[in-house]
Write a structure and sequence with these properties.
The complex is a heterodimer of chains A (about 280) and B (about 500). Chain A is α/β, with parallel strands linked by helices and about 280 residues long. Chain A has nine helices and 16 strands. Chain A has a seven-stranded antiparallel β-sheet. Chain A has a seven-stranded mixed β-sheet with strand order 11-10-9-8-12-13-16, sandwiched between helices. In chain A, strands 14-15 form a two-stranded antiparallel ribbon. In chain A, α6 links the parallel β12 and β13. Chain A is globular, with a radius of gyration of 18 Å. The two termini of chain A are about 25 Å apart. Chain B is of the alpha/beta class. Chain B folds into three domains: about 160 residues, Fumarate Reductase Iron-sulfur Protein, Chain B, domain 2 (Orthogonal Bundle); about 170 residues, FAD/NAD(P)-binding domain (3-Layer(bba) Sandwich), CATH 3.50.50; about 160 residues, FAD/NAD(P)-binding domain, CATH 3.50.50. Chain B is globular and about 70 Å long. The chains are: A alpha/beta (about 280), B alpha/beta (about 500). At the A-B interface, α1, β7, β14, α8 and α9 of A face β5 and α15 of B.
Amino acid sequence: MSKILEKEYFSKNVVKIILDAPEIAKSRKPGHFVIIKIGDKGERIPLTIASSDSEKGTITLVVQTVGVTSAKLINLEVGDEVTDVVGPLGEATHIENVGTVLCAGGGVGVAPLLPIVEGFKKAGNRVITVLAARSKDLVILEEQMREFSDEVIIMTDDGTYGKKGLVTLGMEEVIKREKVDLSVVIGPAIMMKFAALTTKKYNIKTYASLNTIMVDGTGMCGACRVEVGGKTKFVCVDGPEFDAHEVDFDQMLMRLGAYKDQEHLAYQKYLETSETVA
Amino acid sequence: MENIAEYLKAERSQEWRNEIRKTMKTKLRLEKVRVEMSEEDPNIRNTNNIEVNTGLSVEEAVLEAQRCIDCPTPTCMTGCPVGINIPKFIKKIEKEDFLGAAAVLKDTNGLPAVCGRVCPQEKQCEAQCFYTIKLNKPPVAIGHLERFAADYEQNSGQIAIPDVAESNKIKLGIVGSGPAGLAAAGDLAKFGYDVTVFEALHEIGGVLKYGIPEFRLPNDVVDVEIESLKQMGVKFRTNFIVGKTASFEDLKKDGYQAFFVGSGAGLPRFMNIPGENFNGIFSSNEYLTRVNLMNAADPEYDTPVHSGDYVAVIGGGNTAMDSVRTAKRLGAKRSMIIYRRSEAEMPARVEEVKHAKEEGIEFMNLHNPLEYYANDNGMVKSMKVQKMELGEPDSSGRRRPIPIEGSEFILEVDTVVVSVGVSPNPIVPAALPKLEITDWGTIVVDKDTMQSTTIPEIFAGGDIVRGGATVILAMGDGRKAAAGMHKYIQEKIKAN
């Protein structure tokens, strides 16, 4: 059981939650994730840790409503308990001084990107960050990103904030302007796919953090498997970060859709029941 | 070993044992026919989750106990990995002291109700029974009797908690709450240690919960045994991964002096054939975890599972049988085992294969998958299968399967469960770089004490050492390791 200590709405469907989890806070490094479960009948889902405070014993998660479990989590209030939280899981991001790092985040992928931006900056790199969202009100953590980035470029699909266009446009602008030594991309699978194609064109080493379906999160079940460089890898123990140019994003997208129909039905049912309760 | 022989002799010559033996002539005992445990109707049970074996009645149990002739040298015990005093518990049943029988079981086995259900007795104690080796007759039904005594105690409400030595306040950590960890925890608690079991999942029991289905081992049965351990003072921490949530070093700073690692089977193996990552293709670990641990088949629970009409399970072990029988229960029209050797080579228990056949499982033995095909959404829709024939024995001693050229055909499937084995869990070896591990990722230990060859405070057993074993072998390892840890700690105390 982990108590919710703080909750802040970034937008209607995106919430920042601070959880009491002292052991995880102490062990956690950038790139790590947790598995959470809500209630005795809940499912286990992975969420990347956005930040932690080992002194206060807290971890921060940024959650977007995409289905039943994320909706249940967002509907919890300060003082409520999350039934099960386990972690930190996965391999931590390998952070070192490489020169110039181009970080690109899409949607709530910006949250797990923040500690990586911070890490690379503190390791002495020049860090340029591209934040992408559908529109202005979905741009999150801009201020915090500015704190640890030499430059922040904002891209919105509808042009309501920053520049109009996709994340790849912002990335390409930087790549054409200056030498980039490493790129890190986190966001929806489709965004990572095209971001990886962009950096591949310029032969820039790129890491992507994958958010596949998981059950146990400890290497036991293989639900998270995806081909990387022609070999099947388990995201939970081999990842979540991989060489983005080797990841079979089409297979990952296909596997993310495995339960699309059931998830949709379950979410509709959840909305109906939660509305009746309200 | 002499001590054990003398102890058994002394036990056997106790007054009550002598009397029980005298109540019936050996000749009469030998004439009795082995009782058969009754089973639920296969055509009804394959639509629900109730336990298949119904257990023995009091009358059946006493009759079967009378068959045991109480041999002066009980060979059956040589087949038991945890060294249960088999004739003693059976004679207690004959004496109709059923709680006494359960107490004998618990002297050496913390989980008798589990072992009475899932142990391969036909390869262990019953294979060494006097009836089997000397008379070529069906052995005493030791497994059925074990389950009877354990169930009797569970149902009596008078569950005896084993005696525990006075607390020595020495903290020991157990990594994993499966059968190896639970067995080690029970023995260490008896020695008086302050034992904490760390479990990665949200439920205690490891493979007994996520793996073995309800129809073979009800969760309630496991929970009663876990409750006994709690009563003995064993502490449990769920959602705690040693090596991740806290390091071994962190725990040592917290006062833990030694660890038993029973972290079990980790990565499921796949065959690396084309199309294996299509949706609807699971490892048996994933399929069984979704259904058993997460209750995915119950609409009240949030976890989904694909379990279609045409289910192929690849493999011939107990896990394959568990998976294919689960698929049948979830409503499959065809539930098929696809196994590359013949039934004679199957590693699954004979009883599981028999139960599966009764329930309408189709066995496609001497068949091997080559490739999977999917629809536009990436859902598996069919597979290419090749027929095999048996050649010369391979390194495992089993006849090697050889593909028959030109025998390939397409089989319609909408769910596939790959059950071809597992590799050891990599988390502990990754967290302890100094730990000696084999090329297969198993931990190298001394076979008598289960102590790591390179880190003295680490002991290990079960699948993380064996690579893939049974519940009872894991428990045997846990008990051996508990004795090894006890010796290690006591020697350390003496040295200081």
